[in-house]
Design a protein that fits this description.
The chain is α+β, with helices and mostly antiparallel strands and about 450 residues long. The protein contains nine helices and 24 strands. The chain has a five-stranded mixed sheet with strand order 5-4-13-8-9. Strands 6, 7, 10, 11 and 12 form a five-stranded antiparallel sheet that branches. Strands 16, 17, 18, 21 and 22 form a five-stranded antiparallel sheet that branches. The chain binds the ligand Nc1nc2c(c(=O)[nH]1)N[C@H]1C(S)=C(S)[C@@H](COP(=O)(O)O)O[C@H]1N2 and molybdenum atom.
Length: about 450
Amino acid sequence: MRSLDRRELLTGLAGLVIAGTSSSAAPGKNLKTQSVRPEDYEMEFAGFESYLTPNDSFYVRTHTLTPTPDVANYEIKIHGLVNKEVSIKLADLKKMKKVEIVAVMECAGNGRANYRPTMPGLQWDQGAVGNAKWGGVRLKDVLAMAGIKPEGKHLAFNSADKPMGTQPKFIRSLETEKCMHPDTLLAWEMNGEALPTVHGGPVRLVVPGWAGDSWVKWVTDIEAIPTEFDGFFMKTAYRYPKVLGKPGEAVDPKDTNPVTWIKVKSIIHSPKVLAPGKVLVGGVAYSGLKPVAKVEVSVDDGKTWKLAKLDKNKTQWGWRLWSLAVTVPADGVLVARATDEGGNVQPKEQEWNPSGYLWNVQPRVVMGPRPGPPQVTGVEYPKEVKSKCITCHDDHMMQGQRMTRAQWDKEVDKMTRWGAPVKPEEKPAIVDFLASKYPAGK
Ligand SMILES: Nc1nc2c(c(=O)[nH]1)N[C@H]1C(S)=C(S)[C@@H](COP(=O)(O)O)O[C@H]1N2
Ligand SMILES: [Mo]
């Protein structure tokens, strides 16, 4: 029998051993825990000092439980609107022409914690993004073995992951056109190492320029279909309004499109004090649409700007490191602003959307220690909350949230649909507890 690594122990056994409390064991360097079960980890600011994000510092976002794929017998099936149904073994995939691409992957929800009003979902601050060298085969070369019919306008990707309760499967469809892009890959390597299981090993999609939700992990099944896949993770989650409304306004799903391109953005890592008043400010900058053209820094809250120095790593899809030594008062405010080659400029004010996707406002850092997101610890749960809510997932899922009573009410309904055994008469007490413990952010 092979031995389990620490992560497998946590995901596989944590539910049995530690139901009722959260353990905050992040699996690598520079990671903080959003949730242990399912596995969701955010990279800390120190991670923005490296060009390639090491695998064990790379953020993790999994909606379901991490599978233990059968690597020896792993196959990917291609079917639906194809000329010939095929199943391709992992070993045969690895015999095809290999390509390597450096690309940023960012979760669509990165930055959600900063939106006001707050909304349900993991409260990512800045670190649900990383830059890696992905190695694998062009998806189009694999699709050519099956031959996608012209009516197969979309490809639905299914995976080996394990939903909790009656949670829908994580199935995403992408337009066939994007799948045929030479830089869209089926990847089995990350930064020169075998793709770690938590990041989708043995094989995941790499969709440069698009948000992480399209980068399906543990791909086992590709179906050519005529229209967008009809399932929760396409029709309800990961949608962005066609026309933006006011903060707090609901949007009809018919007035939304699936999330695709990530936006132009810079992030500031911890500024280093070089001498009194003199600091070295730096970070990363990227854009899904076009390479970054410049990053500017302001020490007077955006009145005047100075060009930062960009590193030499100019690629189509990777990020650039940038830095600049500036003079700033001890309580001064640093602001950064990225612009890409398409003329897209990082905005001063963030546009609001109901699910809190694609946050990309200019980062503002007040000099002095940077507070992280509030951590709630040592919570005593009433027994009904413990028994109804801390089973599929641990309590991190609830702790991170900041919601009004009305939002909590809807959340408990959603959980009940997904399998939480909450009887109507039990609901008010659960909602009261959650709304008082984890209220909406200001
Ligand atoms: N099968 C599967 N693929 C998935 C997910 C998932 O939950 N299941 N999460 C997606 C989301 S929302 C993101 S942001 C990225 C995160 O990839 P990572 O965990 O390697 O950082 O994987 C995507 N692929
Ligand atoms: Mo994501």
